[in-house]
């Protein structure tokens, strides 16, 4: 049989066209009888929705808003289905997420300026308290190499490296910025230093992605988090550091005392160390001004390592429960380019895209198995300054930095300002609710073993 000609196809369509048009114009689903049910068109979405509601029957033309979906939270390890408005009372209701905790090892990237460093340090410390207060998990800094207090300090000058995609992007948008060539120059330095130094730190310290290293960092953080550190008497290789008084003050309640004779950790608040003993007490200051004598930096390093091993060995840092997901490494990238009068919509878009491109370039330089554990959170330097301000700035416009419209998380109106605690809670919720990518190797490790090789557990392992 031959293929039909075009003229034959057109003739057939002309014959069946009127029949199809008449069939489509008849409303077959209408419950009414004896009426001329002709479909009108073309219909707008609003009119189409109204006709659908009329055909369904029993519904008004103007339907009300959809109900807000409920969320599932945990209260004393019990699941509770409630309204999202309860997030405002998260701490007061002692709620926690109905999921595994998300432990965080964070690194802050901040300009090398004393004021910026001090304010960022305070901001991240308060964020750690808020994160742990919300029962999201542990939130500790990664202090290694150049990362003092977990902060990577970006200098104002940095030798130019090989141009990459980020530089090409900035060169393309430079003509649209106008007279802000200095902004492009500072942004290039910030991006290149962040990408190169962060890649070097993560590659050289590959063990920070392991859970054992996180537990060791957690032990070190518990040691350094004590505000007043005292060493009643510390003897190392014949060198002794002691207080000026012959009789040391009594130990504070809850202090940790480690004796070299017994080799065990004690939490007895009544235990004290004599002037000739080799015990170590944490709870008071070493000297009246809280400083340590000259030449004792190496001794304190050895002491910190010894305390870390002792805390882990004695079970003070508990072992992970079976099925615990790995921790995440959060990079808090402080954005100093939208401070004060320099902020405008175009610059904000360019800076945000450039910093995101720098983070993507960092991911490409890491191993594929390490990328899912990295997470980026950008914080405006203006928000940090507003949080650390000693008083409220009532002369600021209604779209202040602590405004719910800018934060975009908690249910706040556009002109309602967020408090300092709400600002921290916004970042804490953002860190925890960030999706986690779990590799198949991790899934195989946390799933229970199947004895029969039947069922969904075996199917998940075989994926």
UniProtKB/TrEMBL annotation:
Residues 253-285 have a biased composition (Low complexity). InterPro entries: Mediator_complx_sub13, MID_MedPIWI. It is found in: Nucleus. One of its GO terms (cellular component) is mediator complex. Residues 102-387 form the MID domain. Its main location: nucleus. Residues 242-294 are annotated as: Disordered. Keywords: Nucleus, Repressor, Transcription, Transcription regulation. One of its GO terms (molecular function) is transcription coactivator activity. GO terms for biological process: positive regulation of transcription by RNA polymerase II. Belongs to the Mediator complex subunit 13 family. This is Mediator of RNA polymerase II transcription subunit 13.
